[in-house]
Each structure stands twice: as C-alpha cells, then as structure tokens.
Amino acid sequence: MTQSREDFEARLRQIGAERYHDKHPFHHLLHGGNCTPDQVRAWVINRYYYQHSIPMKDAAFMSRVEDPKLRKIWRSRIEDHDGTDTNEGGIQRWLRLAEAVGLDRDYVASTKGVLPATKFAVDAYVRYVRDKSLLEAVAASLTELFAPQIHKDRIAGLLQNYDFADDSSLSYFQNRLKEAPKDVAFGLAWVLDQADTQEKQDAAAKALEFKTDVLWSQLDALYSAYVAPARIPPGAWQPHEGLAVAAKTAKAS
Hints:
It is built from 11 helices and no strands. It is an all-alpha fold and 253 residues long.
C-alpha cells in the first residue's frame, strides 16, 4: 500500500536513525580523541577516495537527465566539490585537511594506498547511480539528511582533541553545514514527489539503505585494517608512507 508523503518521509528518516554511520565504533573513536595519528591519517586517505568520486557520481547522474531544470539544480553539487573561480571546492579543502594531519597532498590525491574495500564500496556507489533509475540515484543521496549532526559532532570532537584541528583544516565540514541543506531539501522533495507508488517507495527506501551500507562498509574496512587487531591488506597505506611532515595529531594529555 502506498504510504502518505508524511509516512514515507518518516520511513526514510528511520533508515538513517537505524543505519547511518554515525553509530560506527570508528567514528566514536575519532570524535572522542581516541584515534592515533596514523588512524586519523588512514581515515583521511580513505575518505578522500569517496570525496573525489562524488563529482564523478553526480556527472554520471546528470548524463542521464533529460530535464534541463534538474541538470541545472544538480550541477551545483559538482561545483561544490570540484570548485569554481570563486569557490575552492570540497576536494581541495579535504587535501588541506590531509596536509594538516601530516600527509603529502599529492600522495593522497593519487589515491595510492586506499583500502581495497573502500574502492569496492565507493566504486559500487558510482555504478549504482550510473545504472539504476533516477529515483533510486537521488534517493541514495539522501544520507545527507543525517549528515549535519555528524559534521557538528566531528568539528567539536576534532577541535577538542586534536592539535591539527582549526578553522582551516576543518573547513570542509564547516562548508558542508552550509552546502548540504540546499541539496537535501531539493533531493528529499524530489523523491517524495516521484515515489508515488508502493513499488517506487520501496525502491527508494532500498536505495537509501544501500547508501548507508556503502558508508558503513568503508568504516568497517578502516577499523579492520588500522584499529584492533590491525590487519593492513597488501597494497594499502602503511603508516610510514606518504608523510609530508612530522605532525602532532593528538593533543597532549
């Protein structure tokens, strides 16, 4: 039975309440100041692969959109990450974070050392958006509904617990607090409008679940490789690689 607009939105929000990656143990370690400098660096390296793939995901989506109005609205997502003449862009802000934690930005930008599971998860998301229906592609982006709180928690936790954290190094998260609301407001309204049958609502909900799996699996890979017990797979980043400077990542107790 087709749900009302209000009930369907509540269903989508419940997916985030149950499955969003803010509940992952790695984020609790990171935000609580309990990650080692190398664990922070591993997170920055692997999360970069996701950041640099987002504009490709959005370009794949736009290549299938025939409605000029939808393409025009969606284009700002690419600009937010790639930058413009007046906007540095999220990718460059993330590389500034990489430098702040002591990594060489060229090494991070090369995506060398990214965990295999990170690549599989992120590449699967890009393929999903490229191959699935437009409704499923947009619905998968609705993890942005739940992102503002994790960004706020991250900014507060990093500022409190790590020496590298300041307005410059954390500018990616600060900017997402301004950028994400416009994206999610449009995306949510579009999904609620388009999902006008039970079949479409079920497909959209499954798409959002898929995206939460993508985010969660990246943290599972990080935790398995760099936390306890550390099992770094062949070809993945080793703590002695890609360092630019010796950096104090954790605040002295």
